[in-house]
Amino acid sequence: MAQASAKTSRNIIPSAFKHFDIGSVNLDFGGGKYDTATEFLKTKNVTNLVFDPFNRSDEHNAKIMSEIIVNGCDSITCLNVLNVISETERKEIYKHIKMMLETTRCNKVIFQMYAGNGTGVAEFSNGVNQNNLRLTHYFTELLEHFASYQVEKVPSKYVIIQKNFV
User: Which among 75, 83, 80, 94 has a CA at the least distance from the CA of 14?
Assistant: First the structure.
């Protein structure tokens, strides 16, 4: 089913991209095949590094991960990805993102999900999966997987996870 996620790439600017600090660096996890959001963020003096194993080449993804390991990033976004993949695949993404939070200077992750029809009944048509889960479902999953972090739900929009600063 993960291969089907390649067919879900949309040429849009997700609303979460409108809230970034000038001069910051973002890792766009599952950012798709289009550079529309990257070009938009460039106008805000934000560097957006897209990592997507289904829509970008292995060479591109290796270069992005290398850059993140060496230079870090200020934020990670995972926008409109969780709603098109299975629970098992979501857990893998949570694990990878959590590792990046723990090993880089990144201190914020933004997850945005499309609810589809909101019924909670997954649909698969034309090679594309849509989970049709509401934000509350993902929020519960994220609370479980990021229990040691500050997890905030922005009603009807997205979930923000931040490191706890003491």
Answer: 80
The answer to pTM > 0.70 is yes
> Could you report the per-residue pLDDT of 95-139, keeping only the tens digit for each?
999 999 999 889 999 999 999 999 999 998 888 899 999 999 999
Judge contact between 161 and 109, C-beta under 8 A.
Answer: yes
Contacts of 57 (CB under 8 A, 6+ apart): none
For the stretch 60-100, pLDDT in tens is 999 999 999 999 999 999 999 999 999 999 999 999 999 99
CATH-assigned architecture of domain 2-162: 3-Layer(aba) Sandwich (3.40)
Q: Output the pLDDT for position 17.
A: 80
26: DSSP letter:
E
Q: What is d(CA 20, CA 76) in angstroms, rounded to the nearest whole number?
A: 11
Write out the DSSP string of 47-106.
Answer: EEEEE-TTTS-HHHHHHHHHHHHHH--SEEEEES-GGGS-HHHHHHHHHHHHHHHHHSS-
Q: What are phi and psi of 43, to 5 degrees?
A: -70, -15
Rounded CA-CA distance 76/106 in Å is 7
CA 67 to chain centre: 18
